[in-house]
Amino acid sequence: MTQPDLDTLLAQVRSCCECMPHLPLGPRPILQMSKTATLLVASQAPGTRAHNSGKPFDDASGEQLRHWMGIADDIFYDPRRVAILPMGLCYPGRAASGGDAPPRAECAKLWRWPLLRELSSLRLTLLVGTFAQEHALGPGRMTDRVRQFDRYLPSHFPLPHPSWRSRGWMVKNPWFEREVLPALRGCVREALGAACGGA
Ligand code: SF4
């Protein structure tokens, strides 16, 4: 099948209701991208605040992620520079065990590859959380991957999900702030600067 142009593809994605019966708040795909983006945030699924505002990472997790990356809101939310593509594009509801449910598996099967094909300027993909890491790299332990982040460079950088749970994880793994975050900020600056003449 021929790939539609990006505007057509995004219109198709934004009108998708493939897994509507499973979405407690209904379909509302949340993503950000353009062909010129050089940095991709490959994330998990929107939360309720992002669902309500229509803006990805519009919550405490987003503040944490931007702090980790060392970039301001105006850069993070500039689709010409940064693409944000969750594994599941709509809020998936709550899991029985607490926390948000996993991203809907239908979503990546339908939309991920057509959307990724449009990101032809990418220099770096941040794999935020286990779902994005397993999709790109196969099965593996998140903590091991983050600690060995330089194995995946220059194309990928694995990160934990920046939810409130990551605070306890960071206390247990102090090397993350000491060694990984400075490297992450350098890689982000480099990926953005290549397209934008310096971040
Ligand atoms: S989660 Fe993905 S597949 Fe399901 S309705 Fe939203 S856009 Fe469509």
From TrEMBL:
One Pfam family per UniProt: UDG
Positions of the Uracil-DNA glycosylase-like domain: 30-185
Top-level lineage group: Bacteria
SMART domains registered for this protein in UniProt: UDG, UreE_C
Name under which the protein is recorded: Uracil-DNA glycosylase family protein
